[in-house]
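User: Structure please.
Assistant: Input sequence and predicted structure:
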Amino acid sequence: SQGSPRAPPPPHSELWHAVARAISSQRDPDIGDARRAAVSEAEFCARLPAALLESRPEQLSEGEDEVWRAGAAALCDAEHQRCVAEDDAAGAVGSAEAAILLLCDVSGVDAELSARLGELVGFYNKRAVKSMERGREGFAWAKLLLGRALGLTARPERCGRVFLPKDARLRLRATTLNNLGCLCRRKGKAHAALKH
């Protein structure tokens, strides 16, 4: 029913929180300031299609919960594809992030999760470039997406986790820094652009 609050998923793994922190880390590309904040349960639930949380049974065993999370991630993937087809950038980003966070509690960092994180960083960059093409009105969204890409491509000793293989991380980070330089240049901040 519409008036009843959605029940949050059960407690998350350490990996979930590490990925959530990386996704939600806000970097100001103009001054290099990094502020990390964990994603709250409410923010996470807001990223999931409402039907998913309403369909989740109250009591699940650990194995049943993993099956539910994997199925929910597949539904988030479908929502992501729908949003991409409809050019709904915010919906596409939110559903892609939700799918990854759901899978963190199921699989841990494995080849599939690393590949998905790499695709997400590529998607952040692609959408940021598209937003920059809109001019000033797209700069804030581009900055947010590129900040998230920086969070996921940070050095392991800086973020405490290895999300991507080193070669993929460095390639994606170089792309992100290049796009940050382009954003700064478009904003008329030539000195900041050179730093990236």
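Residues 1-9, 26-39 have pLDDT under 50 and may be disordered.
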